[in-house]
Structure formats: C-alpha cells, structure tokens
C-alpha cells in the first residue's frame, strides 16, 4: 500500500435487511420457501465472513412484526428454518460468535424461545463477532416497549435522556449501527432500527439477498470508506 492509499476502515457495526428471498424464488418459478432456504444459507455465509474479517457487531433483520401478515405456510416455513438454525448452531461453537436475539419473543413457540435462550447462554463467552438476530422485531414496537419499561421503572420525566431510551431498547449495550445495507432494490428502512440509525450510513443494491456474496459486502465496505461522517459537524 502506497503512502497516499487510505487504509480501509471497517465499520464497527453493520446492520443488514435481508430482503429479496421471495422475488429470488419467483424468478426461478420456485415456492417462496425455497427463497427463504437460500437466504438462510447466505446469512450463514455472511455472518461467518464478518467474523473472519474482524467485524465487531452484525445485526440482521430476519423476521419483522409485520411479517405475521404473510401466508401461514410461509410464516411456518420461516419458523422451521429458525428452528433448524438454532439446532444447528450447536455445531458452530468453535467459531467464537456470540449470538443475541432482539425483538418481542412473546408470540413465538415455546420450543423456539427455549432454543434462543440456549444459544445465547451457550455463546455468551465468545469473543468474536457479536451477532444480533432480529426476530419479531419492529422499530416502533421496540420504542413502545422501551417507553413502557421506563414508565414502570418509576423514573421521572425530567430524568429521561436519550441514553435512558437507548438503555431500554432491545439493543441495549450495543453501539448504534455505522452502516446499514439493504439489497433487493428497495430504498426504505422498513421499521428497522429506527432509533439507532439516526446517523447510520446506508448502502442499497439491486442484488437479491440469496445472491449476496462476501464480494458484495466488500464492495459496500469500500463505498463506506468513501463517506465523510460528520455527525452534524463540519
């Protein structure tokens, strides 16, 4: 690297909206569940790659509070994929990835909730990538949940600060995302990390999630390195 070449800056926290599974399947005349299966494989590949390159935090949008509106068969297929991932995660403890689930677990099946706890507890001493998986997650729901927690704690209105709210979100203790990636050609947040993304950089792509590869992540990081993050300053 010559003197004038800038050293690559790796974001501390990347968040990804894993979008496009259904369209990927439709293009191939396959059922939507096939797209979710392909997307799950991509998720594992990208998570492992992020761990390999030394990323500290990765947060992925797996299932939103609005996704319950989808056909019952599709929802059940996604939940079965989640079960498979949670059971399979036992085989990857040596990868040193710490797993955490964010979102409202209340409506989830009891076996899924138990597997989530098992995975979190089993990986809590990992020192590599911090992987946050958003399940039944919605940004507005998260803020509503945080407000209720604050009220129930008895704190006075005068003592509430931005930090108070951050400390009561599902992502408490996790730095805000520096960089949010959305493949699939959509240009919106879709109720994802709306409090935490106040100063995030964004990267959009037409690539459907099942086709997203480490090379695309590297291209996104390359673009991130061209940004000038001023946080309201000059």
List the helices and strands and how they pair.
Layout (H helix, E strand, L loop, with lengths): L12 E5 L3 H7 L4 H22 L3 E8 L7 H17 L9 E5 L7 H14 L6 E8 L1 H15 L8 H5 L12 E4 L18 E4 L9 H11 L10
Parallel strand pairs: 1-2, 1-5, 2-4, 3-4, 5-6
SSE run: EHHEHEHEHHEEH
Given the C-alpha coordinates, what overall shape results?
globular
CATH top level label: Alpha Beta
Are there runs of 5+ residues with pLDDT below 50, and where? 1-5
What portion of the residues fall into strands of 2 or more residues? Answer: 5-15%
Compute the CA-based radius of gyration: 18 Å
| Lateral strand order in the biggest sheet | 3-4-2-1-5-6
Second rung of CATH, namely the architecture: 3-Layer(aba) Sandwich
Helical stretch tally: 7
Distance N to C terminus: 29 Å
- The assigned structural class equals alpha/beta
The named CATH superfamily:
Decaprenyl diphosphate synthase-like
Number of strands: 6
Q: How many domain regions? A: 1
Report the biggest beta sheet as strand number plus sense, adding barrel if it closes: 6 strands, parallel
Query: What is the CATH topology classification name?
Result: Undecaprenyl pyrophosphate synthetase
Key attributes of the depicted protein:
single chain, globular, 234 residues, six-stranded parallel beta sheet, alpha/beta, Undecaprenyl pyrophosphate synthetase
């Amino acid at each position: 690297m010559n003197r004038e070449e800038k050293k690559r800056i790796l974001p501390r926290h990347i968040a990804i909206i894993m979008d496009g599974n259904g369209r990927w399947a439709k293009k191939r005349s396959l059922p939507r569940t096939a797209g979710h299966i392909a997307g799950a494989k991509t998720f594992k590949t990208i998570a492992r790659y992020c761990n390999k390159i030394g990323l500290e935090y990765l947060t992925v949008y797996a299932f939103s509070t609005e996704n319950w509106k989808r056909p019952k068969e599709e929802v059940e297929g996604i939940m079965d994929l989640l079960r498979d991932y949670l059971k399979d995660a036992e085989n990857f403890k040596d990868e040193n990835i710490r797993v955490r689930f964010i979102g409202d677990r209340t409506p989830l099946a009891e076996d899924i909730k138990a597997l989530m706890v098992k995975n979190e507890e089993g990986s809590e001493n990992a020192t590599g990538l911090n992987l946050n998986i958003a399940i039944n997650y919605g940004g507005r729901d998260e803020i509503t949940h945080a407000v209720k927690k604050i009220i129930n704690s008895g704190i006075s209105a005068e003592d509430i600060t931005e930090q108070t709210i951050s400390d009561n979100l599902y992502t408490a203790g996790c730095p805000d995302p520096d960089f949010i990636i959305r493949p699939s050609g959509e240009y919106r947040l879709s109720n994802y990390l709306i409090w935490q993304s106040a100063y995030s950089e964004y990267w959009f792509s037409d690539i459907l999630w099942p086709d997203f590869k480490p090379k695309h992540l590297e291209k996104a990081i390359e673009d991130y390195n061209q940004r000038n993050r001023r946080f309201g300053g000059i």
